Each structure stands twice: as C-alpha cells, then as structure tokens.
Amino acid sequence: MTAGQEPAARQRLLSRWTTRRWLRVGVSVALTLLAALSGLGVWAMDRAASVTTDLVNTRSPAVTDSIRLEAALVNQETGIRGYGLTGQKQFLEPYQEGLADEKAAVDRLNQLLVGNPRAQADLATVLSRAGAWQQRIATPISSAPAGAPAPLAGDRAAEGRVTFDRLRQAMTTQQDHLVDARGTAVDDLARAEKLRNWVFTAIALVIVLLAVAVFEGLRRGITDPLSRLGTAARGVAQGGFDHPIDVVGPADLRRLASDVDSMRLRLVEELRFSEAARATLDEQTEDLKRSNTELEQFAYVASHDLQEPLRKVSSFTQLLQRRYGGQLDDKADQYIAFAVDGANRMQSLINDLLAFSRVGRVHNDHQRVDLEEVLERTLDTLSVAVEESGAEITHDALPTLVGDTTQLGMLWQNLLSNAIKFRSPDRPPRIHISAVAHEDGWEFAMSDNGIGIAPEFQEKVFIIFQRLHTKDAYPGTGIGLAMCKKVVEFHNGTIRIDPDHTPGTRIVFTLPTAQVVPAARAALEAVDRETQP
To answer: pTM (2 decimals)?
Structure first.
C-alpha cells in the first residue's frame, strides 16, 4: 500500500464505525485513565487521612492527657502538703480529685500509647515515681488524724520534695517526647497534604486534557453529523418535503438519516390524514358547544316560561281553598291542600332553578368586593331566622376580593341558611366563619354544630336536587349547596366538606385573590339576552 493510499484506507475504516463503537472506544480510554487517576488520588487522600487521624486521635490527645496527668499529680502534692501543715480535711479534696483525674488520664494514655514503646516506657517511669511518692509521702500523711499538723509531713518534707522533683523530671521527659512525636506527625501531615495537592493538580490537568479530547471526538464523530441531520430535519418540519436528507458521519447516523428520509415521505400522507381528522374534530367541537348552549338556554327558558302557567295553577288552587274550604268533605279539603302545596313547591323549585341557571350569565359584574359588607347584608336578611333559632354567628376578619357581589351574597346566604336550618335540636346553633390567607388566594371555612352530614353523602350534597331528608323534616329544594358550588367554581375556586369536623359540618372553600373572567362568559350573556322575553 502506497503512502497516499494509507490515509484513504484509514478514512474508510473510520467511516464504518458506528456511534456505539466511537463511544465504546472513547469511554474505555476515558475510564482507564480515570481509574488510574482515581487510584492515585485515593492513595494520596488515604495517606493524608492516615496522618491526620494519627495526629488528631493519638498524638495530640496523648500530649493533652500527659498534661492532665501532671496537673492531677500536682493537685495531689498541693493537697497533701496543705493537709500535712494544717491537719484540715478540706485540703484532702484536691488530693482525692487528683487521684481520680490521675486514674482517668492513665487509662486514656494506656489506650493511646499502644504500639509506642518509648512513650509506654516514659509512662511507666512516671507511674513508678508517682507510686514511690504516694507510698512514702502521700498515703501516710493522708492517713494521719485530722485536726492537727501531721508530724510525718515535717519529718519527710525534704524527702518529699526530692521524690516529687524526680517525678516532675519524668513527666517533663514524657511530655517532651510526646510533643516531639506530635511535631513529627505535623510535619508528616504537611508533606502528605503537599503530595496530595500535587497529585490532585496533576489529576485535574489530565482530566481537562481528557475532556478536551472527548469533546473534540464527540464533535467530529457525533455532534456535527447530528447537527447536520437536525438541520435537514428542521427543513422538513418547516415544509421542505421535497428536499432529501443525506448526512455523512458514523454508519448508524447515516442509516438514521435514511430512515428519517423515509419518514419524510410517510409524513406527507400522515399530514393529509391529520388535516382531515382535525376538520372532523373541529366540527364535533362546534356541535358540542352548540349542544351545551342549547341545554343552558333550555334550562333558562323552561324555568322562565313555566312561571306564568304555574302562577295560574297556584292562584286558582289557593282560590279554591279559600272559597270552598270547609264546604266540601274532608277528602276534598285534603286534595285541595295537596294541590296548593304542590304548586307552591313547584314555584319554589322553578325559582331556584332559574337562579341556578343565571349564575355566570346574568350576575357577572366582577369588581372589588368587601366580604365584610356582603356578610353584614346577608346577616341582616337572615335576621329573623337567626333570632328565632337563637344562633350565635362569629367570623374572622374578611378580606376584599375581586368577584361578583350578588353571587357572593348568594353564597353566604345559602351557607348560613343551611347551617341554621340543619341545626341540632339538642343545642343552640354556633356558627363560625374563618378566613386564612394563602399564596394564591384565601381559604374560608364555615363551621357549625348542627346535625352534620354523613361521610358517604359529602360529595352527593353538591349535586343539584339531591336531598338527604324529606321535605316534611326540612323544607327546601335541594339546590342550595349546588348553587354554592357553582358560584365558587365561577370564581375559579374549590369547595368541599371537611370529613374530620365533629360535631356538625365544616364547609371549606377557596377564592383566588384576583379573578379573570373568561371570554366565554360574555357569549353566555349574549345568549341570555336573546332568550329573555
């Protein structure tokens, strides 16, 4: 093979490499280098950590405990000398404390000096001389009777000074050796840290060079071909379906480009099908909107147009009751009473249904609303019911929000009316309204001590016309809480019943601080105006 043919052959060989092979080779080289660098770094860190551990856990504590041992022996000598001269027992307290401190320091030193023959020999010398001093001086004097100077203290004063001076010399030698050992450990630590820093500097440099090499390899073998493929694919996405996709690079990327080009051809067919499906979906959406609009219009018109014939039925049945009441038999009076009651309940039901259908349609004047004022007006409206029931109503300070004044008044009135209506016969009603500010709005809760709602009905009560009691037990149409839910959701809030509140019921609802009225509600108003007579 000639010199000119070798580069071409190498280029053909590399062109057959897939992305996986490029990555496998690159990752293998990188992992090998990183493993070697990690081993070197672990060795350097372990070396520094070992020296640090020896310094912190052995050398320095040994010096500290040696000093504590010396302090304990000095306290013993001071206490014995004072007791020998005066005979007062309080001078033995430093001696007794010194004995305890000596034992503790010796125990720690025995643990710290394991494997250090010279330090152990120094400690043995100190303990030997301390034992001699205690045997000859400390123990006899401390055993002398209290109340008068000990004669032995004067007799052995010179011997005690000589013995304790020899003990001091032993302790000084021990501390000098321990300090020298600590200094050697400090020097070892400095050298280990210096070595560790050089090793990590070298590791960082090698990692940087490796990162540059990996980046360049990824750019040449993967990112540039992918970028060209992405450019071609974006051209197709922008409508250039007549431009074929042809990309150079690793073998698998070239195959991917071929697959994308095949998908380009299929995409044209898929787009045609998608446009047809979208047209069908738009048509169905319009049909659904029209159906919903017609349903709302029907609910309004039905409830509105039933008012006049129902008023006639109610008027004539009441007229029959007044004119012929008592003139017919008891069965006829009962039938007339049934007709009057049914007409009145139908009138109330239609009025409630009409009010329910108008939420979000007729009352849609969003402005700043002071809930304190709205609640005061509601309480004034319900003053008779509050007085007759003996209800005690309290509330926290209520905020000012953006909403519809009429609807929020309906919300308070329905909630308070329910709390008063469903009161317990065993206790007077106690109703409290709380308000807690959150990041995105306010959480309100109306708590009462009434008869409560069973857990299995706590979702059902928000459905229109759902009643949990007979009309004879509690009058009403079963639309109050459904109205509350519609008002709260119209203001982009949520409403629920607290299942853990006892006794009674706790209804919790949220209202955002600011309201944005959807444009769709303007369309509802237009439909409402068209349906009004």
So the answer is: 0.39
Distance of CA 141 to the CA centre of its chain: 70
Residue 481 neighbours by CB distance under 10 Å: 21
Report residue 454 as tokens: 């069973």
* pLDDT at position 444 over 90: yes
Q: CA separation (Å) from 168 to 74, 84, 254?
A: 9, 21, 87
Crossing angle, helix 251-305 and helix 224-237, to 10 degrees? 40
- How many Cα atoms are found within 13 Å in the side-chain-facing hemisphere of 503? 12
Tens digits of residue pLDDT in 145-182: 777 777 777 777 788 788 888 888 988 988 888 888 88
More confidently predicted of 242 and 140: 140
Query: Could you count the other beta carbons within 10 Å of the beta carbon of residue 167?
Result: 24
Sign of CA dihedral 474, 475, 477, 481: negative
Both tokens assigned to 350: 């239609």
Q: How many CA atoms lie within 13 A of 409 on its CB side?
A: 18
Rounded Cα distance, 313 and 340, in Å: 8
The pLDDT of residue 10 is above 60: no
Using one digit for the tens of pLDDT, what is the confidence trace for 491-525? 888 888 888 888 888 889 998 876 444 433 443 34
Q: How far apart are CA 52 and CA 47, in angstroms?
A: 9
Phi, psi of 367 (to 5 degrees): -155, 175
**Residues 6 or more apart from 313 whose CB is under 8 A from it?**
339, 343
State the DSSP string of 433-458: EEEEEETTEEEEEEE--SS---GGGT
Distance CA 333, CA 320 (A): 9
Nearest Cα residue to 173 out of 66, 61, 60: 66
Q: From CA 507, how far away is CA 448, in angstroms rounded?
A: 9
DSSP 1-62: --TTHHHHHHHHHHHT--HHHHHHHHHHHHHHHHHHHHHHHHHHHHHHHHHHHHIIIIIHHH
Do 403 and 363 meet the contact criterion of CB atoms below 8 Å apart? no
Q: Which residue has the tokens 């070298």?
A: 202
Any idea of the CA torsion for 108, 114, 116, 118, to the nearest 10 degrees?
A: 60
In which residue are the tokens 């979208």 written? 278
As a whole number of angstroms, the distance between CA 26 and CA 190 comes to: 38
Question: What single string gives the DSSP state of each residue in 124-172?
Answer: HHHHHHHHHHIIIIIHHHHHSPTTS--HHHHHTHHHHHHHHHHHHHHHH
Report d(CA 229, CA 223) in Å as an integer: 10
Query: What is the C-alpha to C-alpha distance for residues 444 and 513, in angstroms, rounded to an integer?
Result: 12
Three-class HEC string of 105-133: HHHHHHHHCCCCHHHHHHHHHHHHHHHHH
Instruction: At 360, list the tokens.
Output: 């979000």
* Residue 73 contacts residue 105 (beta carbons within 8 Å): no
